[in-house]
C-alpha cells in the first residue's frame, strides 16, 4: 500500500509538473507573440502585409519602415529627451525614495506612524488631473523639463517596499556604527545603501520602465515639441499614422512603406532599449522585491 501510495504521489507530482511547465510556456507564448508579430510586420514587404500573410515570421525582408522612422528629424531629439527623463528621473526618484524610507524604518522616530499614515493615504486618494495641472501652472513649471522630472518623482508603494527592506537589515550593524561615532547620515550612505543594492536595482528598473513608457502627463504638461519624449512621438504615429507633412511626403515617395509598418517599427524602436536593460538587472528582481515585501 505504501508503495502504491508512493507511486500515486509520484504520478501526481509528474502531472503537476507538466501542468506548471505547460502553463508557463503558454504564458510566455501569449506574452511574446504580440511583440514578435509587431517585429514581423515591421520587417515584412509591403505586399505580404497588405494581403495579411504575416502571422509569425516576416515575409520577405524590408527595412524601409525603420529607415523612415529613424530619418524623421524629431525622433533623435525625442530619444535624447527620453533618455534624459529616464536617467535623471530614476536617479532623483531613487534618492527621494530612499530618503523617505530610511526615517520611516527607524523605530525610534516619534513621527514614524503619523508620516506613514499620511503616505498611505495617497495610495487611495489623489488630487486629480485638473488640480495637479493648476499647481504646475502656478509654479510656472509648464513647458519645462523639471515638470516631467517632478510629477512622478516618487511612489508611495516603492517607499513602503524600500522601508521594509531597510527594516530587514541587521540592527547590530547600525548599533556598532553608532558606537564608533557614526551619525545617521554616514550610516545611511556607507552601510544602508551598499547593503540595499538588490532592492534599489529592482525599484530603479521599475522607475525607469515607468518613466520610459510615460506619455500622458508629458503631452499635458509640455507643448514645446523639442521637449517631448519619444513615447509622445509614438502616440502621434499611432494616432495619425504619420508624423507630419514631412512624413506624409515620405510615404508618397516610398511605396515600400505602409502606415502600419511605420507604427510597428516605431514601437520596436522605442521598446528595445528598455527591454535590453532588463537582463542585466534580472538577478536583483526576485531578491530585491521579495525581501522588501516580507516584512511590513
TrEMBL record:
Q: Which residues cross the membrane?
A: 12-36, 83-102, 114-136, 148-166, 187-209, 256-281
Q: Specify one Pfam family.
A: BPD_transp_1
State the family it belongs to.
Belongs to the binding-protein-dependent transport system permease family.
What PROSITE patterns does the record tag this protein with?
A: ABC_TM1
Q: What is its main location?
A: membrane
On whether Membrane is a keyword of this UniProt record, the answer is yes
Protein's name in the database = Aldouronate transport system permease protein
Q: Does the keyword Transport apply?
A: yes
Protein topology in the membrane: Multi-pass membrane protein
Q: What is the lineage of its organism?
A: Bacteria, Bacillati, Bacillota, Bacilli, Bacillales
Q: Which organism is it from?
A: Paenibacillus macquariensis
On the tree of life, the source organism's domain of life is Bacteria
Which keywords does UniProt give here? Cell membrane, Membrane, Transmembrane, Transmembrane helix, Transport
Q: Where is the ABC transmembrane type-1 domain?
A: 79-270
Where it sits in the cell: the answer is:
Cell membrane
